[in-house]
Records
---
Amino acid sequence: MRIIIKNLPNKITELQIRSSFSKFGEITSFLLPLNEKEKPKRFCFIGYSKPNNVINIMNNSYINNSKISVEEIDNEKYKKYKNGEPDGINIGSDMTNSRVYVTNLPNTSLDIKDEIYKLFKLYGGITNIVNDSFAAIVTFDTHVSALKSLELNNCEFLGVLIKVRMYNNNIEKRFNTFFFDFKSIINQYKSKDKEVLLNLKDSDLGTNISLLESHLIAKTKDFLVANNIDSSCFTERFDKKVLIVKNYDVMGSISDSFDCRVSVSPFGSMALLYFKDEENARKAYKSLNCRRFGDKAVYCDYLPICIQKKKILEENLEVKQKNSVNKLIVKNVPFQADKNEIKRLFSSIVSVVDVRMPVKGDKTSRGFAFVTLKNANDVTKAIEYLGTNTHLYGRRLVIDKANK
């Protein structure tokens, strides 16, 4: 017997749901779908070993002031949800998952695995602990024990508040966003050019700043690729002999005091510090991270290890090109921006055929635009160059392929 529970409270946990429904029989399966932000959706699936009266008792009852509905679900419909249909549903709560992911661990050179074990063993048997810089994966002997340990989220551990959540192998690994403040962008121009760029009467001021930031980000990504670093495929492991430093340009000659090889990005705002051993890298990290130089702070971290992506087969690539479109949708467009500014932004990278900005009844912008390009290759190029972190009038543009 399998049921679907709808209209659950927004902030409910699997443990709370189990406590309400386990009294009706042995639970053999439990699926709690997650949205794109890894937050629980307001429904779940529970499987029982035997038929029972859970529907008669719990349907139209209340959980945390939310009136829930409980009904039986057939295998065919259940399989569609399980396979990710519809709407690319992400199924969270795997009953075979007995691991939790612990982050925000204290910054220390000591081995704290024993302290982690003492803290988490209160919730059940532990079979393995893997810890690295600021994070750890704790494996329990049962799924329920892992769920109970989520109570440790935001608890104090060795002087810091740790974060605890269920570990998910499918979580996409991302690097810190390449974002540069206004001063960093302007400093790339010579003093004479700044006067032209910062002309407040210039109608293209917003577009100029946006283009300059996008260029800065693109060059920084090229710098990382040249150093065999792919920011789109980082793992959870770190190379503790390499530091990546932001705002490196404000450090001055202090970098000469470290025994390391330095590779600086084209604009000088980011650098890679290669050390001979982990001990020297650790000392540099403690000396530099969050250290202020004038009115700016230097941020550094150990370099995440990246893995090589699998090459796409030529046949699949050809099929993809045939099915691709030559139109972009640009979301989160500032209301003060017009289509000429959008066109100028994209024209600096690719050939723009047309720009269309839908409007409301009062002729004001609806906050998005469609950009038609010359071909599908230009769409890919525009997304790669501008789609990472392009801002216009302080708002981050969300750029993606438009539907046919």
---
Amino acid sequence: MNTAIRRPAAALLAGIAGGVILTGCTGGSHGDAVPEDYTAWMSQTSAQMNVAGDDEHGGAGGRLTVENGDEKAGASVSLEYDLAGPYDVLAVCRSSKKVHLTVSDYTAATAGPGESLESMSVLGQADITCGVTSRIPIDVPKGRAGITLDASTTDRSGQTLFDAFVVTRGAGQ
């Protein structure tokens, strides 16, 4: 799978991902409609996980939406930073029954005025039961430009949220 993201878009995604601490949330009703400010839910999940400092390595999340007549709602975020080694991705969702999360690594190459990102391999994946934190172990090879988080659900309502947080292997247990 080849995915092209221009540098400004990749930098924006990395900036958003790095600025939001993401983790799991077991409190509250996961069947509720999308809150007006869903970043409040993401902040709540972060506080409940209580993973920070050297164990935190960024993350991302958001609302799963349907585009161009897709059969599933989805969201995809690329985190652009060097992560070689063993990590866990802590993931949670709400307002649906399940979300499938796939974590892949990628390389970046200069392509004209921006960068092209090329997916290399799937590092881990899981079906996340909403309202329950899932831990996905990943081993990121050296020489990768970053990782991509691809979330999808068969729930096409546009209400589903997901949150994922990259941590040192075993952190927060």
---
Amino acid sequence: ITRQMRPRLSRGLTQVLAEPMAWNQAPVVVTTLPNGLKVATKETFGETTSAGVFINAGTRDESRETAGAAYLTEQLAFTGTRKRPKDRLAAEVESMGALLDMSAGREQTSYTISMCNKDLKQGVDILTDLVTSCPVGNIAKEKEGILKTMDEIETPTRAVLDDRLHMCAWRDYALGFSGVGPFDGIEGLTEAHLQSFVNANYTAGNMVFA
């Protein structure tokens, strides 16, 4: 979190990671909450704020049976949650003039939002909702549309080449699973597969909020 959001926490451990590089640069402060969640904060001097949840999980945490779970879980976040259905989520983000983004890679999944300083509390609430209420129950209704979108997206040639080289290097290890697709077996993923992936990886000790 940037701008005026150093947490006032009496519990947990706080550590200053870096000293200011210049007179107008604040240090990064990392606070570890009792549940293991790390919160990294830095004060800036602009009129906008960025916040994100970074999860130490990606395709390397999948198995042959759950290949594609990281990508599909991240994509399902765009379909909304019980508290914020898809249309309400889109309208709320638009009304803030915010930019909401999610991405899943080999070793990390991220949910980020950028907004005006005054909307920080609302933005954090949106992120919290998306991460703690992953809508894996929407998979039956949304999977077909997500897979169709995957087929229509033209992945840059360089990204595909890098991905295939990585797959060759790691071969049968999970770290060699594709990060850009196609994801073998993704059509067979069920709600149970995704819920198992979320339960194992979307934990406080496995996340950084920054």
